[in-house]
Amino acid sequence: MRRSRRPRTGGAALPRPDKYELYEAAVQGVEYDLDFVGRTYRTHRGRPFTLLREDFCGTAALACAWARRGRAHRAWAVDLDPEPLAWCRARRLPWLRAAAERVTLVRGDVRRPGTPKVDVVVAFNFSYWVFHARADLVGYFRSVRRALRPGGMFFVNAFGGHESMRTLTERSRIPAGTAADGEPVPAFTYEWQQAAFNPLDHRLRCHMHFRLGDGRWMRRAFTYDWRLWTVPEVRDAMLDAGFRATHVYVEDWDEERQRPGYAFRRRTRMENMECWLAYVAALA
């Protein structure tokens, strides 16, 4: 008989890992995103902004971080899934204190959110790739254009390169940190799997897995059924939706250390690489 390798727990069941805690620790960098958006908005508009909407918000980490940055800041966070919104209400809003009053969570379709007009709309973490048909993508972008105040801007991100169009599995060790409510999050391993890609329609199916320090796995904690939209396709759709101009900001690559340079610069040309990340900014 094979000896069990499960950790001893004294007969008590181990607490179930919180997939939203692990997701935020593994892939989100909301402070960096907000710094980039704020800097880019000031560059193009010559002033700061105050009103932000986060589409496909999940746990609304970015919207809440924006509200914390200033008393004049207001944020609306929109998602169709009630579960992460409930998580935000229970785990994040109570610790925002007064700033929580400046955050409005909206369960609804991002194409018809019913929110006031704002200065900035963001759709990060490639979330808009849920739209597989171009008509749906343009329709979403058009609804964003209508939701912006004069001088507003819309930000999305994208990835590409040779590796984006093949199956692969990447693993990263995530150091210990702190959750939204101040509770510690132990170190864990994050696994990104591109399980299937169809080059004829760019349909991309991906999974996130998490391996905890005690050996337990959370397999397929999140699954995504996306269309991999290229940057030219995204920019064309934005212009067709009524935006006046678009700009692309690509992450630097450190050749000496063979790793990302963690700075995004406006580009009109670049060499293709195995993998690259970019923001696309649209001006209303």
Question: Overview of this structure, please?
Answer:
This protein has helices at 19-27, 30-45, 61-68, 82-91, 93-96, 134-147, 231-240; strands at 51-55, 74-79, 103-107, 118-123, 148-160, 168-174, 177-178, 184-185, 188-198, 203-212, 217-227, 245-254, 259-267, 276-283. It is built from 7 helices and 14 strands. It is an alpha/beta fold. It is globular and about 50 Å long. Helix 2 packs across helix 3 (61-68). It folds into 2 domains: 22-160 and 228-283, 3-Layer(aba) Sandwich (Rossmann fold); 162-226. It is 25% helix and 37% strand. It starts with 18 loop residues before the first helix and ends with a strand. Strand 10 (203-212) and strand 11 (217-227) form a beta hairpin. The longest helix has 16 residues, at 30-45. The strands form 3 sheets. It has an 8-stranded mixed beta sheet with strand order 3-2-1-4-5-14-12-13. The model is unreliable at 1-13 (pLDDT under 50).
Overall number of strands: 14
At CATH level 2, the architecture of the largest domain is: 3-Layer(aba) Sandwich
Low-confidence stretches: 1-13
CATH top level label of the largest domain: Alpha Beta
N-to-C order of helices and strands: HHEHEHHEEHEEEEEEEHEEE
CATH homology superfamily of the largest domain: Vaccinia Virus protein VP39
How helical, in percent, are the residues? 25-40%
Number of domains: 2
CATH fold label of the largest domain: Rossmann fold
Q: Approximately what portion of the residues adopt beta-strand conformation?
A: 35-45%
Helix and strand composition category: alpha/beta
Shape: globular
Number of helices: 7
Mean pLDDT: 92
Query: Could you describe the largest sheet, including whether it forms a barrel?
Result: 8 strands, mixed
The Rg value, from CA coordinates, equals 20 Å
Query: What's the N-to-C terminus distance?
Result: 67 Å
Strand order of the largest sheet: 3-2-1-4-5-14-12-13
